[in-house]
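To assess whether ligand presence alters the predicted conformation, the chain was also submitted together with nickel (II) ion. Input:
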Amino acid sequence: MKFPIVAYGDPVLRRKATAIEPDEYPHIKELVDNMFETMYAAKGVGLAAPQVGLSMRLFVIDANPFQDDDPSLKSFKRVFINAAMLEETGEEWPFNEGCLSIPDIREDVYRNSNIRLSYYDENWKHHEEAFSGMAARVIQHEYDHIEGKLFTDKLSPLRKRLIEKKLNDISRGIVDVEYKMKFPAVKKGR
Ligand code: NI
């Protein structure tokens, strides 16, 4: 089952998501499958639960489309539950990022090159793991989502001003997008 993806401007994207208790969500694998299905249909490399309207500390990543940049990402398909960022180090480098909740906008974003993350996988196995390069980049972007942050927050005041109208349009559903979305500023029944 595919979810509609929540667009920029929805308050759920600004909420710090809450941790998941294993017994609260016995069907987490079904949710994870649906998130992957939603993500693949929208041609994304990552999707966080708030983007489908669920304020939960969960995100999924399949960085396979980045295998040309980094061959190790060919089979980088992961589920991150209750992730906590332990460390972000290394030089900041720019990459032209996009987001399924902010279609049609891509901007250079600077992020640290190395991270250390604590998380649970879909089998509730705990991991503490280091990531670098593109893998770290994609995780940092998705991790921001469960913290209520978006890549546009990291832009310079000038860049923010330049995309302001486009962001407002996205909230109102004035954007060409190939996948199903839920726009916060569009009244129901219209
Ligand atoms: Ni995103």
